[in-house]
Amino acid sequence: MSELQDLLVLEHVTKVFESREGRNVVAVNDVSLSIRKGELITLLGPSGCGKTTTLRLIAGFELPTRGRILLEGQDIAYLPPNKREMGMVFQSYALFPHLSVFENIAYGLRLRRLSKEEIEQRVRTFMALVNLTGLEQRKPAALSGGQQQRVALARAMAIRPRVLLFDEPLSNLDAKLRVALRAEIRQIQQRLGITSVYVTHDQSEAMALSDRIVVMNEGRVEQVGTPEEVYHRPATLFVADFVGRANFLPVEVLQLENTHAIVQFAGKRLCTPAHPDVRPNKPAVLMVRPEAIRLTSHALESNDALDGVVRNVAFLGHYVEYELTWDQHVLSVEDESLPGRLFRQGERVRWYFDPERAFVLPKR
Amino acid sequence: MDASLGPSPLSRARFLRSFTHSLRLLLRDSSLLIAFGVAVAFVGIAVLYPLVATLSRAFSAEGAAVLANVLARPVFHRIILNTLALGLTVATAGTLVGFLFAWVQVRVAAPQWIKRFIHTAALVPVVSPPFAVAVAAIVLFGRNGLLTYQLFGLRTDIYGLPGLTLVMTLSFFTVAYLTLRGLLYGLDPSLDEAAANLGAGRWHQFRTVTLPMLLPGIASAFLLLFVEAIADLGNPLVLGGNYTVLATRLYLAIIGEYDLTAGAVLSVLLLVPSLALYLLQWRLATSASVVSITGKPSGRGRLITDKRATIPLVGGALLIAALVFLIYGTILVGAFVVSLGVNNALTLRNFEFVLVGYGAKAIIDTTLLSLLATPVAALLGMVIAFLVVRGKFHARNALDFGTMLGIAVPGTIFGIGYLLAFNTPTEVLGITVLPKLTGGAAVFGGALAIVMVYIIRSTPAGLRSGVAALQQIDPSIEEAAVSLGGSRPTTFRRIVLPLIRPAFFSSLIYAFARSMTTVSAILFLTTPQTRIMTQQILNETDAGRFGNAFAYVVILIAIVLVAIGLLSIFVGTRTGAEREAA
Ligand SMILES: Nc1ncnc2c1ncn2[C@@H]1O[C@H](COP(=O)(O)OP(=O)(O)O)[C@@H](O)[C@H]1O
Ligand SMILES: [Mg+2]
């Protein structure tokens, strides 16, 4: 039995498509997930990793080749999509072009045969919620992309779905609007406590929105965790690399101490947090995020610092991005932006990091 | 290599798995299953069964003997050659005319009224029975022709290949025109501009950029015309004279000799090239659409303004358009005079003849049966289009193909097929599923068979326009509607159908016009209880009463135009414009 708080459970779900040439494509490979009531969980991964397929399996537009999907403990495999009470928000908005904004939002309510007053009232409530009041009679074509997606959001929420599904809803919007709308989605979702599954390939969107993130790769789940866990304690090299940027440095694991490992790095011993699968004398790498690396002037003597040469500089205002060469490695560094402190291309610098901000991962 | 050994156990297991999967999916959503079942049953009964009946008769022992006989006799070689020659000349001339019209329409700078005139001329033949042009041509260009003899004193022989080519080109070039016009509009003008930018002159540009892009479309139009030309029965009957083609020989076998076996054998001879060319055309058309749509459809390239090019192009198109109007003018005038060219006194006797007696019955029967077939054909076309575009089952391509057979197969063959298949009650596993549909004592005086033929002949066009329209619609729109709680049928009715309303509307019009003007497929199916206008027109023509024939044609065209007008009012095309605004 699944726990009571798990509203939606995927058990070993696999989806195999037959491609046109008759070859089999495993779009979703043995995925198991539990989605808790009221949380927003994000499926994050590169394009083609099976996020949309997973979402469509939940929605009922596809049937799993193997495995089960349980909603409140009930297997819903043969429940058609229109009986699943799951609202869906699409990348392309998918508004009904021949219906007004009001009628778009009312569509699901009319199907439920609500009274006229109730429909009227609920449409107005949700239009207000997404800041669209006054646009009731417009046709979708007369709205901006952001407005269209708000209509789609209101339409999906108005039916009070058991689960709300999002498939890259912000991908067609420009960057500023994307940031604004994702904050709004998060607020509304939390206010109404709607259980949501959100698909995106944008890791900052995933971080900003999610209670938990599911990182997927080639149809498989690589890690399920809070944004913090996924970022600082990645389960695999893939996650470390895909979520945020990371430097991977060669280390040798000497011994383990609880959650930490003593490693040999650049001739020194460090004690850093470690992945539970790390073992002494097994191949491992040290992950150091660009913002964990500090730079100092070459002139300053320091025992802990290593030598490097600036290969590239990009001044981005709120921070400075460097590429350093160190011992045949190229490192990404995000340094503070302080007046009067900018290292030039070709300049020799020293760099160091706090071992607590690094993470040792097993190399597969 | 192991294909010759039959399916391997592995692929059989995979087939079984995907089959049960499809079945589970279908069962979960029973409305799709039901729609699919209805479509398959209809296509199976109304399209495939008559063809199978024809084929099995043709390949029976009796049929084999007839075939051997046919293949041995030089007269039949002549007929086959005639058929192919007619296909070739009509397809060539029709493609050229269609191309000329399309080119002038899209690429040449000309006054708007000229373009509208040309466009109208190209569409007129759609609403008239195809052989109406042939009858008018006899009056205009025959031995006593108004133009040839009375004006220029020429004794011309319009009967035979040249006359047929002229008449059939004018009747059928619309297909080529519409196909090529669509392609030309779809061509990204920036391609031409890019070529011009690189220093290509107009002509060079045409040869190296435009023509290669259009080639699949041109070839596809050519093949369609070829198939239509060798399938046509009305024109060769009226204007063939001694120039016998397969379709007319087939007609003779049934009507003159009551020999269904010979009819079936000849059907197969006609079926083979028709289907082969049709399939080739299909492949070309699908590849053409991939090649041509490179950008937003817009004909806003630079228009040709060079007088040395525009004058011959526009002049040529205008001349042909004028010829079309001259012919239809002849029909109209001919309906109101005693005998055009012989006795030009005004009279209403032709209409009187047509409107009282069995003329009236034919008009009412034809219109009623067409009205019955029209919504069914259009809706069936949309539903099958939906199944083909959105369905997930493997059989959808077979359903598409089976439906298209309704138009790919010459109508005459369906006429014979229906006689062979439905002359006795149809039984499946010993249960009668259909009563006797054709011949004497047929149910509803043969009307059901005629309606079925009308439907199968019109559904393919609806299917194609439905497919084209559905492919423009983001599938997520339907998925959104379903996720909001709508069943498939509700979604189809409230979301899909309104969105493809222009396609639905045009297939309603097409279905009605097509049914009203159908000749070859129904000639064998009419009974004394059910009279059809096109057949009456043919009878009057045969008897030399051209005035009556013209009056029928005028009434028929008037009915079609009124129906189109009423449809525009009730169904309308507003959604199309609304969508374009989006
Ligand atoms: N209907 C389908 N038929 C065949 N292959 C599909 C189908 N849908 C998705 N795929 C394949 O499955 C894989 C995962 O696709 P998808 O779930 O859309 O990925 P994502 O949304 O993560 O980009 C891709 O390789 C894609 O080509
Ligand atoms: Mg996707």
Labels describing this entry:
heterodimer; A: 364 residues; alpha+beta; Rossmann fold; OB fold (Dihydrolipoamide Acetyltransferase, E2P); 2 domains; six-stranded mixed β-sheet; 8 helices; 20 strands; 23% helix; globular; B: 582 residues; mainly alpha; MetI-like fold; two-stranded antiparallel ribbon; two-stranded antiparallel sheet; 24 helices; 4 strands; 2% strand; disordered N terminus; disordered C terminus; binds adenosine-5'-diphosphate; binds magnesium ion
Number of strands of chain A: 20
Tell me the radius of gyration of chain B: 25 Å
Radius of gyration of chain A: 24 Å
Largest sheet of chain B: 2 strands, antiparallel
Per CATH, what is the topology of the largest domain in chain A? Rossmann fold
Going by CATH, what is the homologous superfamily of the largest domain in chain A?
Answer: P-loop containing nucleotide triphosphate hydrolases
Strand line-up of the largest beta sheet of chain B: 1-2
Description:
- The complex is a heterodimer of chains A (364) and B (582).
- Chain A contains eight helices and 20 strands.
- Chain A has 364 residues and is α+β, with helices and mostly antiparallel strands.
- Chain A has a six-stranded mixed beta sheet with strand order 6-7-8-3-9-10, sandwiched between helices.
- In chain A, helix 2 packs across helix 3, helix 2 runs parallel beside helix 4 (145-158) and helix 3 (116-129) packs across helix 4 (145-158).
- By secondary structure, chain B is mainly α.
- Chain B is 74% helix and 2% strand.
- Residues 1-7, 290-299 and 575-582 of chain B have low confidence and may be disordered.
- At the A-B interface, strand 6, helix 2 and helix 4 of A face helix 1, helix 19, helix 20 and helix 24 of B.
- The site of magnesium ion (MG) has 2 residues of chain A, from helix 1.
